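Z., the sequence and structure:
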Amino acid sequence: MNARRTPPAYFLEELTEIVSRLLFTPPDPQRTRYPLAEPGVHRSAVAQDLARELQETFGVAIPVAALLATRSTLDLAGLVLDAVAAGRRTERADGGGSAEAGFADSASTPMSTVQDRIWFMHELAGSNLYTVPTFLELDGPLDVDALGRALTVLLARHSILRTLYRASAGLPRPVSLPPEPVVLMTVPSTEEDAVVTAAQSRVFRLADEIPVDFRLVARSSGQHLLVAAFHHIAVDSISLDLLFTELGVRYGEALRGTGPVDPLLEPAPRYSDHARAERDELATPVMQRRLRARAATVGAALADGGAALLARSGPAGPGDNPTARASRARPAVPAYTGDSVRTALPERVVTMIADLAARHRVTQAAVLVAPLAQLLASHGHTSTVLLGTPASGRTRSESLQTVGCFINVVPLIIRLDGARTVAELLARTQEALLDGLDHQDLPYEELVRALPCRRRTDPPPVTVLYSYEGGRPTYTFPGLSRAELTVARPSGTAKYDLSLYLRARGRRLEAEVEYDDERYDRSAASAILADYQRLLTGLGAASADGTGCR
């Protein structure tokens, strides 16, 4: 840090108060304790909270990265004073105010809670963590110009695909740009590998770039690959289905010359309307009571050991597979880097899953989650399991046709005490899934803030994720014989300590464990996946012969 004059005493006292609140400690007049230099502190979470506190108290925007570089309250004071001075210089230069060149959305347009979290995480990680690479295989005589015109209409109708996210007074603000023609870059098949790799490693600059990028690979024999990298702040899985279904329609219109004269006169439903409605609902007393009640339930599950599962490190206990344990402690500032291992479950296992669900009158999701709960409980030596699963978050009818990121992480609380038979295990899991869905309208971000007695040093409540990805719909592009979409995940990243992804592949099921490589190595992840597969097949055998859970 550069040398600075000593800040005023009253100013340092106010900063000390903020620091003490973040640490949940009494004020430290000597300023010997500082949250971003404390051992064991989850520094990224503290930095995000500190950024909000400084914005609310002093009206300054300080990047999270700059906060992470500070090591004392005096360092912090210098940053804040510099930011205040810079803000005043900007106001004088602008004649007392500033206006960004935008279109459609105003400075008062809110972001949704999930967009807030994604933006902060993106700024913190500075990586491809939230990139969504997609690959659309097109077979047949493709009219490239018509596809470009169809993409132009698509972006014109969906303003979220041409929205930037710029920090204003320390908080992100969406600014929609005017529609422009999409220039579709076409590359030869010899560059396909490079284009695919670039999409999976694409890092968006959200303040300067729209959250989507297209490339077209011209393969041989009349085949093409449309490579589209999206940022998660603008789309989720349902959004992708909506977009590529509409793209086929717009492509047909472009071929016939019957598309809309002005796409802006036929806009799609606006995501900003959802964000505003969500913020308004969160402010109601009913929603606040529901958040507090659910947070108390989640907090009790955490106190019962629900989070001390595979995510912990240390020596193996009785019955543990020591290979599957975390080999390293969670770092104070995670890098969110990772890798994955996968396997294909044979058709007989898929049949067993369906039969088991029908026999016990539960959903197939309950059958798939139950062995994961068993695995986590065994390794954590606990009867209470807490894991997360994504829910669509589209609880309003108008959201069903809206492009945007609605997805919400729902904590599942599975209590296994006394569940000695397969029927009891599946019933408990089904109950937890239904309970989670009943609360899917409670934003995960707000739930975490409402947790009782939560310290900034605590890890996030959800460190293990379960996700099932069904088959995608059929997309129709006139004149083409096939349009098949593959949605991948960004390369070299991991949002959670562990994630179990199950994907339908015709009559087979693909299982993949994504792991944080700061906590696990490949052998541990492979052991976890093997244990899961063993427990899953064991459910079918135990149910058939009437024995207990294995």
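Residues 1-5, 88-107, 308-319 have pLDDT under 50 and may be disordered. Residues 522-545 form the longest helix (24 residues).

Let me know what you think.
H.
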